Amino acid sequence: MTLPTMEQGFAIRVRGQVQGVGFRPFVWRLARAAGLRGDVLNDAEGVLIRLVAQDCGDFIAALRADRPPLARIDAIEAVPQVFAAMPEGFSIAASAGTGAETRVTPDAATCPECRAEIFAPGRRQGYAFTNCTHCGPRYTILRELPYDRARTTMAGFGLCPDCAAEYADPADRRFHAQPIACPACGPNLWYEAGGKEVAGDPVALAVAALKAGQVVAVKGLGGFHLACDAANARAVALLRARKRRPSKPFALMGTEAMIRAHATPSEACWRLLRDPAAPVVLVPARGTLPEDVAPGMRALGVMLPYTPLHHLLIAAFGGMLVMTSGNLSGAPQVIGNDEARKALARFADGFLMHNREIARRLDDGVERAEPPMVIRRARGRVPGTLPLPPGFDAAPRVLAFGGQMKAAICLTKNGQAMVSQHLGDLDDAETALEYDRTLRDLAALFDHAPELAACDPHPGYRATVTAEGAGQPLMRVWHHHAHLASCLGDNLWPLDGGRVAGIVMDGLGLGPDGTIWGGELLLGDYTGFERLAHLAPAPLPGGDRASREPWRNALARLDQAGLSAVADRLFPDAPRALLRQAVGAGVNAPRSSSAGRLFDAFAALAGFAGAQSYEGEAAMRLEAMARPAAPYPFDCRDGIIDPAPMFRAAAADLAAGRDRGDMAGAFHAGLARAFCAPARALVQGGRARAVALSGGVLQNAFLLRECLAALDGLPVLLHRQIPANDGGLAFGQALVAAAQRMAAAKSL
Amino acid sequence: LSHGGGGKAMADLIETVFFPAFGPGSGEDQARLTADALCEPGARLALTTDSFVVTPLEFPGGDIGKLAVCGAVNDLAVGGARPLWLSAAFIIEEGCEIALLQRVVASMAREAALAGVRIVTGDTKVVGRGSADGLFVTTSGVGVIPAGRDLAAARIRPGDVVLVNGVLGDHGAAILAARGDLALSTDLVSDCQGLGHLMEAVLAVAPGTRAARDATRGGLAAALNEMALAAGCGIEIREEALPLRPEVRGVCEILGLDPLYLANEGTLVLFVPEAEAEAALTAMRSRPEGQGAAIIGRAVAASEGGAHTARVQMVTSFGGCRIVDRLVGEQLPRIC
Ligand SMILES: [Fe+3]
Ligand SMILES: [Mg+2]
Ligand SMILES: [Zn+2]
Ligand SMILES: [Zn+2]
Predict the structure, then answer these.
(1) What is this structure's pTM?
(2) In chain A, which residues have their Cβ closer than 8 Å to the Cβ of B325?
(3) Is the separation of the CB atoms in A141 and A358 below 8 Å?
(4) Residue B317 sits in which domain range?
(5) Is residue B3 part of a domain?
(6) Cβ atoms B290, B166 nearer than 8 A
C-alpha cells in the first residue's frame, strides 16, 4: 500500500460581485500564465479558487489589481489546502450550490473592445447587440435566476457556430457571456413610421428623421427613450409640447467630444461618465445648446452612449441627442413593442425598434460627481448590493417599504442590502403596480423571506398601506430618523459608532409630534434620536398645494415675519385674503418646519412665479442662480431656527434692487450657518462624533458646499450611493428596524 | 330652552314644536304601521339609521333637519327601497332657540312630504350646556324593496357604467362657506335633497341597475372605494367627465381641497350595465335632481396581484392615471 502524494496549496475564497462578470476565465488565464495547477468555481458564497502553490500572495495581489472591469472584490480569504492528487493543470470546475444565490450584476455600458469592434470591419461591424463578459445587458434581460441564457430574453436566439465557439473558449472575452450575439444569430433592428416598418437601414432612417427635427422613440436597455436633436430648439420645443413637460430638464446623450463641446466636465465627472453604470451626470453647461433643453439650469444632465445601438445612432447622427424616458410624465417608462406603438404614438414620429425583449424596466440613473452622489438610483446600479455597516452581520432579514413620492424598497440579508431602483410616485396607478411587482420580484430573485418589515408612519403613504397588509411584524420608522440612518449606513458608520448630529432637510415628513417636519437638527444613531433644533414651523396654506405653488409659502413666511405688506406687493393677484383666513381658521393649513418649503418661499420672493411644473423646480432654479454671498441672519433660540430676520433682510435687499443671484447665495449661506453652528457645537461639546447631512434639500450642491465650509475641520458624512432624498428612505428604515430589533433582543 | 326632566316643560315643547309639524302622536309608545306594502310576495323590508351633526345648523340650501330626513330617505332609496316611514330623535343643547328648532322641524316636515314619507315617531332630550353642539338629530327610516329588486355592490361587473346625478362637492363647499371663518363670496348652495323619486325614475328604465350609493361624507372617493371593495373589481373614472361647478373648483384650488373628497348630501352614484346607461342618464336628466347627470367612468377588472387589487383610478386630463384612495383620517400633506 502506498500513500498518495499530498500536495500543499491554498483554497482562496473571493467575495463580492464576482459572478457573471468573467471572473473565472480571468482566474483561469492568471493561473495559466503563472503555470499554476488547480481549479476555480462559483458557489453560493462567491468564487472559490484552489491552487497548488507554496505561496499565494502574488496571486492574490494580481486578483485585486487585474480584476475584470465589472468585478467588485469585497474580501479575499486564503486557507491552506491539501490536495489528495496533483491536479491535471488548471480548470474551470462546475458550479457548486443552488442557483438562487447566484447573483446577477447590473447592466453595463459597452466596453472599449466591443465599441471598437462595431466600428471596425468584421462580423460585428455595425451590429447593435454586440456585448461580452465585460459589458452588455444583464438585469434588464433577466427573467429569473440563475442567470444563464435560457432564463433571459435571449433564450429564443440560438447561438451560431461562431458565437458558440467564443462562448465555450475560456481564452475569449465572450466566454460564458450569456447575451452573446452576432448578426447571424442575434436580435435585429428595424425602423417604423406611420404604423409600419420602413425598408432601409434603420439607423440611417432614424437619423434622417432626427435631422428633420422629428421625435424618434428608441428602444433601449431598460425602456424606450424619446430622442430629438438637442441643438434644434424647435425639435426640443416640439418634444416638450407633446410630452406636456414645459421645463423639467432633459437628459442628453453624446460622445465625449460632443459633451466637451457643450459642457465642462471635471476629471471626476469624466470618471463617472465612463463608469460601466453610465449614469446621467450633472455637468456645468457651456450655454451652447438651446435654453429649452434645461431651462434655468447651469448644469446639463449628460450621459455617454451605453449600448452599441446608442453608439451607432449618435455616430451616424453626429451630434448630441435629447434622450428622455418614453412615458407620460409621472408614469413608468414603456418597455414592450406593442405598448410603445400604442402609448408613444402621440409623442414620436418614428420608432427605432428591436426584437430583444426588455424583461425589467430600468430608468437611467442620475448622479453627481462632486461630491459623488447618487440622485436617482437606477440602471447600472441595480441590483448591486451594498455591504451593511459593521455590527449588522447578524441583522435580521428586513423588508423596508420606503416612501411615497420616490418609492424604492430595500431588502437586507446576510450582511448585505439590496436597494431597488427608483420607482416613482405611488399615486400614479402604473407606478403602484410596478411597485407591487418589484416587491414580489425582488423577494423571489433574492430568495428573501423577511423576518421584519419597516415603513414610514405616514398613514397616507401607499407604501405604508402596503406594508400594513403584508403580514410581517412591522416597525414604523420616523421619516427623518430613516434619512439620518440612510446617511450613516451609506458611510458604513458602525452600529456602535456613537451618536452623530444629523442635519436633515427635506420637503415633508411626518414627525413624532404629529406635525410635518423637514428642517431638522437631530442627535442620534441607528436605534434612536432626539430633535435638538428645527426651523420655526409655518403653515402650508392649501396643504399639498403649497408644495406646488411656492408663493403660498412666501405668503405664510412673510406674514409670520411681519412683512405682510411685502407679500401684498409681491403677489397682488393671489387670493391672499382667503388663504390668510384659511390659515387663521386652520382650514387645510398644517404647520411644518419644512426646509423645502422655505426654499420655495425664498424662490417666490426672488421672482419664481406661478406653479412648479416639476418637483423641486423653484429650489433648483434658486440654486442655479445663487452666487457666493455673505449669509443672511437667522435667529436661533431654544432650538427654534427662525428665518424671520432673513426674510426682513431679503425684503430690504429686494426693495434696494440687490442682485437676485447674490440674494440667493446669501439665503443658502444663511441657512447652512443656521444649522451647522449648533451641529458644530454638538461635536465640539463631545455629544456627537460627526455631522451627517441628509434629506432631498441637501442634494443642492450650493447648499452642500456652504455646509461643508461651515463644518470645516469636523468629520462630515455625506450620501454617496444611497440617495439623500426619499429614494433612500427604505435603506434607512431597514437599518433602524434591524438595529432596534437587535437592541431589543440583547436587552432580553 | 331649559334643561328639564320628563315633566311639563317637555310636554309643552312637544306640543308646541313637534305636533304642529309632524301631526299628533298616537298616544302609544310606538308607531303602528300598515303592512300592505309588504304583502307582495318577495318584498323585503329595509331599515336604516343615522345621526346628524353639522355646523352651522342652518346653511344655504338646507339645515340639519332637512339633512336628517334626506339622509334616511337616501340610504333607503339607494338600496332600491321605497321610503315609507321615519322616526326622528332630537338631542337639544340647553339654550337652543325655540324658533330655530321650529324652523328645523318645519323643514323636516316639508322634506318628508316631498319625499312621500311620514315621520311617525320620535323622541326628544334636552341636555346641559356643553353636552351637545346646539342640536343633534337621529333619524331612522323604514322602506320596502319591491319583489325582484336587488341592488348590491357585489353585483357590479367590469364594463358597467358609472353615473352621477349632478355636480360634486356643493354641500362640502357650502358648509365651509357658511361657517363664516372664510370670506368666500360665493353663491354656493348645498345639494341636500331626497333621491327617492330619482331612483324610482332610473329603475323604471334601467331595471338592470347593479348598485347605487349616496356619496356623503368622504365624497365620491369614499363611495367609489367602498363599492370597488365590495364588488372586488376596479373603477376607472375620467377627470374631464366629473361635473363640477366652477365656484367649487375655484374654492378647491385656492384651499387645496380635492372635490372628490368633499361631502355631498344629494349625490347619487349609480352602476348600470352598459346597455342601460343611456336610458338611465336620460331618466336622471328628466328630473330636477338629475339635471347635471353625467357618465363619469366604468368598472374595470381588478388590477393584477399586489396588496390592493380593487382600486379606484382616475384618468387625468393629462392622460395619466392616478389612484384615488379613500381619505385616511385628516388629509396630511405627503409631498417630500
Ligand atoms: Fe424626506
Ligand atoms: Mg346611514
Ligand atoms: Zn464588451
Ligand atoms: Zn452568432
Answers:
(1) 0.93
(2) 460, 462, 465
(3) yes
(4) 153-323
(5) no
(6) yes
